[in-house]
## 1
Amino acid sequence: MIPDNPVGPIKKPPAARRTPKWLTRNEQNAFLREVRGQNNKRDYAIMMLMLRAGLRVHELCELLKSDITMSARAGGVYIRGKGDKDRVVPPNSEVRSALQSYFEEREDESPYVLVSQRSKKLSVRGAQHMVENYRNRTRIEHLSCHALRHTFGHDLISAGNDLQQVAMLMGHYKEDGTPNIQMTMIYTTPGIEDLTAAVESISWT
């Protein structure tokens, strides 16, 4: 009824900086338990490549068998990244095991790492739809392909890894080809789980 807002001139408190969405350790456990429960080795390999190697969804779909080298204790995943900024991510034991199990059951001749039932190459929409299905099953509202990649970055930082190493693994590069640490700094922003652990760390009980 009044023409002016009487609280309009009052400054609002500063808003907290938005943080990227990642999965907590409990959410990761619930999510991976659901994926393993489906007994689908392809789905599990897809999740490991995003969650434990940080691949973007389009990088995942473009990945060729020839881009991957693996041995019992080492290996490399050659990734054609955004803006022609390629990188190599050494797959950890979880990724190597998931890929090996998936490759052992493959009988097709597709050169791509990931295939669908109807195509020799998994589509971006197909990967997104699969993750959406798991989001509905687990009821983890922020579960997405991008959240899985963010979880990889956040977990690397939480484990105490050097920012330059994380930038290289995430594919964060400047125009001159050097690691873009500023872009990687977003993963140092604590989530609620990190803040809870911080206050618990000084509890005497």
## 2
Amino acid sequence: AVEAIGHGIRVNAVGSGDTVTSILNHIHADGPSALADYGKHAPIGRAARPEEIAKVIAFLASEEASFMVGSIAMADGGKSVVLPS
């Protein structure tokens, strides 16, 4: 991020949690259902919809985030702030 900012490039990341997509279909008969079920373990009680993660990405790419450099925007339903049990 620091190396790129001099070239007008802002580097940020999204730490996404379980998101209901078909990415697991090659290993699970119903990938979206499996992800939805697993997402119930997040503090928010559900998995994300793809558009929720897309909105975070769109924000980071927008001028509204023009001062953000080297940030990780956690969109994980609270999983990153819970201590492991």
## 3
Amino acid sequence: MTSARPTARFTDRSALVTGAGSGLGRAIARALAAEGAKVVVSGRTAASLAETVALIEADGGTAAAVTADVADAGSVRELVRRTVELHGGLDVAVNNAGVFRGGTSTADFPLDAWRELLDTNLTGVLHSLQAEIAHMRAHGGGSIVNISSNLGAHVRLPGLSGYQVSKAAVSALTRAAALDHIAEGVRINAVSPGASESAMSLLPGETEAERDVRMKGQSPLGRLTSAAEVAAAVLYLASDDAGSAVGTDLVVDGGVSA
């Protein structure tokens, strides 16, 4: 006998998704809401967050938008405070906010781009973890999923040293934080997508159709990873189904890093 797949794993739970104004963050937020979560979507641009909220509400879900900049620790603490105020707690957090900069060799990598990558992709995750864990460990625990990348800890390409360093560090930070806080009831994991349905996977001047053709040759799977597939991996790790997953870095890249 097989049991039916759960369709409401996050009913009565409060979830926060950073970088939720578009792309993977929007897909993750919609997937959480579809399974019953009350979602706060966050990012730096109010208009795009409003679009995400409208999509969730059109699907029958519950969502609110709070603007924040993960590079600013105070902004993130206020984001968590507002999430708790709006939805009564914080049970699930997905730290997805990130930026992509590349196309320059290590010797010539601009220091301002390097700092932006580390401030947002790495220190932004640390700010988020610190604010989220502070609430969760005082209120019975919770689950956190950091969005890393297959680029960094799993695959390296030329011209992307800053991005790859920032994401490899997220993978390492995830494992370290997971060990630090599992005894406090806070379970922390990561998902490392490869090229997927987001603007970050487009080369300069490339169309989505051209990207699809390119991925047929670059991915062993022969196609781009869908945003829904990445979201499904995130929801698995965030859910009780993954209760023994601690410090996992789940790569979802169609076999590129296999």
